[in-house]
Amino acid sequence: MGFQETKAHLRKCTCSSSSNRKQDLTPQNRIHRRVCIRDYGKSICRATSRVALLNALQNCLEGYESLHAHTGILQGDISTSNLMINEDKKNSSWPAFLIDLDLALKE
Questions:
Q1: What is the reported pLDDT for 14?
Q2: CATH number reported for the structural domain that contains residue 69 in this entry
Q3: Confidence (pLDDT) at 30
Q4: Fungal-type protein kinase domain: from which residue to which, for each copy (predicted)?
Q5: For residues 81 and 45, what is the distance between their CA atoms, to the nearest angstrom?
Q6: Is residue 31 part of a domain?
């Protein structure tokens, strides 16, 4: 294929919809956020005791409720990988928290 043939071929491939219709490329009900932090905490599955696990689960549920009440955001991907516990005595500001809001929805 020559240069002109390649340009024509790409134009055919990229223009799959009618040029008369206006395309809406904006995703609906999504907010792009990015937070860069250092590693902090571990999955609640790796809690050191049952008491620590249950306390972390309670704190994660309270955090989920607070996230929804204050922002209207639903986490959307609750799993043991996204419920974190912090048992570091030196830095215990948040004993448990939610992560991974990629699939979060705003009501």
A1: 45
A2: 1.10.510.10
A3: 75
A4: 12-106
A5: 8
A6: no
